[in-house]
Amino acid sequence: MDPQTIGSIGENRTVGKLKQISSDELYGIPLKNVYLPVGDGRTSEVDVLFVTQKGLFVIESKNYSGWIFGSENNKTWTVSYKGGRKEHFYNPVMQNKSHIKYLEKFLGKNIPIFSLIVFSDRCELMKVDITTSSIKVIHRKDLIKRSQRYARSTLMFSISS
């Protein structure tokens, strides 16, 4: 299977997991492959945008198996597969920071925005160093719990006209 198809499967599973949330604490609508204007006619693609009454969850979905290594400030991360094969991929934390920057440019900064990096349950997060408390790197199986935890700790917002 090609990487784009594998990625799309992961995004669909992430959306499916979000659709399972049925709580007064957190209700939302997951949107897949949201294109944000960045200027000069270019766009930036958010894998999954979860629009809730608590804010926007910007989700970078990674559908890898294997061992994951990375740091918040490294340009690339590594997935190591059985047999010793390794692949490098662009830092998903940096991807989401970019998405959030464009969202804030487009919508303003009065809407809470949360960054979630969601990995397949088939991978192992071996050494992932994140120091910024607002950035979470999790497995898909923890998505509902983590999202609801955000909801409990965040006041509802309103957009005034």
UniProtKB/TrEMBL annotation:
InterPro entries (UniProt xref): NERD
Domain of life: Bacteria
Residues in NERD domain copies: 6-126
Name by which UniProt lists this protein: NERD nuclease
